[in-house]
Task: inverse folding
């Protein structure tokens, strides 16, 4: 990935263009992974052009599924990644290992592929994003590790509604050798502190909240640098 805040934390924000990406990187002291979501683009080529634009200011760009984590977009995300080598892409769990292998066989530079799961409302359980099956976190992490999956995305966490589940998942992921955990959904300046405090003592390689809607100017489509700064200021005293 890239250099991390306090050797652990990164933050994923949407970037409208290269200037917006540069502004949010500055606001986040460089600890930001700018991203796009696939459903904002009518064609793979348009998305590839945008990733290449963002790569002029960031060595890692994240490609999201879009549509609230719509698993049906996995092929589009993979096709964008093959053509642009973004560094990070989102996939449902069911296609994450396949996508990682496909990219590795293409002799691309290292791409981190996360695997999306959903919270269930019960600590120690997760739901697969596509199939809807519920699994014990420990058993799931054993399977994920055996498949070479490097990061687990939990979405939607609805801010802190599922924070106990998220903290437990992060602890088990670290114990099983998973590199990263990425929460998404409803995260903003009012709840990021509780989320970060819950995982700050877990020695996982990276923890990357995805903070989209709450930081975006919905008229311009740009992430607001002042909101990025506010998030960093909120959690700075916790770490």
Result:
């Amino acid at each position: 990935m890239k250099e991390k805040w306090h050797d652990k934390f990164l933050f994923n924000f949407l970037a409208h263009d290269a200037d917006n990406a540069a502004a949010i990187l500055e606001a986040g002291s460089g600890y930001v992974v700018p991203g796009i979501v696939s459903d904002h683009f009518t064609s793979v080529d348009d998305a590839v052009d945008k990733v290449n634009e963002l790569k002029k200011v960031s060595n890692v760009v994240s490609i999201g599924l879009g549509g609230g984590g719509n698993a049906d977009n996995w092929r589009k995300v993979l096709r964008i990644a093959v053509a642009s080598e973004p560094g990070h892409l989102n996939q449902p769990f069911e296609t994450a290992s396949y996508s990682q292998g496909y990219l590795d066989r293409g002799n691309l530079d290292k791409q981190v592929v996360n695997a999306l799961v959903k919270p269930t409302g019960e600590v120690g359980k997760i739901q697969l994003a596509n199939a809807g099956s519920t699994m014990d976190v420990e058993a799931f992490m054993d399977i994920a590790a055996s498949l070479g999956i490097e990061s687990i995305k939990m979405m939607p966490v609805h801010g802190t509604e599922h924070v106990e589940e998220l903290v437990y998942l992060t602890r088990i992921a670290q114990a099983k050798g998973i590199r990263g955990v990425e929460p998404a959904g409803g995260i903003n300046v009012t709840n990021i502190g509780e989320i970060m405090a819950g995982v700050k003592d877990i020695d996982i390689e990276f923890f990357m909240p995805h903070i989209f809607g709450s930081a975006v100017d919905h008229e311009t489509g740009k992430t607001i640098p002042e909101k990025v700064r506010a998030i960093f200021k909120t959690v700075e005293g916790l770490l």
Notes: The chain has one domain: 11-236. Residues 11-236 form a domain with the TIM Barrel fold (CATH 3.20.20.70).
